[in-house]
Amino acid sequence: MRLLVIGGTRFVGRHIVLAALAAGHEVTLFNRGRTGPALFPQCRNLVGDRDTDLSALADGTWDATIDTCGYFVRQVDALADALEGRGGQHVFVSSVSAYAEPMSPGYTEDGPLVELDDTTIETFTDALSYGGLKVACERAALQRHGEGTLIVRPTYVVGPDDYSWRFPWWVARIARGGEVLAPGPQTGHAQVIDARDMAAWIVAMVERAEGGTFHTVGPSDTFTWAEMLNAIADVV
Fold first, then answer.
1. What pLDDT was estimated at residue 125?
2. How much of the chain is helix, strand and coil, in % rounded to 5?
3. 3-14 burial by CB neighbour count: b if 16+ within 10 A, else e?
4. How many CA atoms lie within 13 A of 169 on its CB side?
5. Which of 9, 166, 214, 232 is least surrounded, with the fewest CB atoms within 10 Å of its CB?
6. CA-based angle 117:119:122, to the nearest 5?
């Protein structure tokens, strides 16, 4: 398959590219060209900026397009305009921040979503604005690319190349030793997914041309915050 990845050089996007290459697919990257050509010289690297210049996408057709870095509706619309229907199945990487609080254990993809009064804002003033903008992007992607669109809502993503430092911070801090201050309650539920597992799943879904909206989470439904920190402590 010919896959177009928007981004594709950092964390989740990088692992999607690695999974696609491992599966034997032909991958094109579109990004600002800072690290893509050096990281993936075996891929076709298109240089541009999704905010200002999408002209590099004027030529080419793909079986699927995977958008790993869409945060604003105008970005989703501009990408759709640039591809003009040549991008194949569309995959939009969203977030579980799309769900409205409070969320109880066991909530499904049909749970209530964050609704913003203004979906044109471009500042993440809080978790609600981030989640609400992701919801708006999901809806824009579905409107522009149809019901075959795959919407991916990850939970806490962990794994190599995690530049967010959310999970690696705990590993580094616990490794230093001593008493570690941690939030409670200890029995609070936690769900993580390894970026490599999520990437392999996304590629498999694209291979089957399966659309829909999905949580991407680890297999355990009994994992707690205390278990996660204790597991880190056991290893380091």
1. 74
2. 35, 20, 45
3. bbbbbbbbbbbb
4. 7
5. 166
6. 120
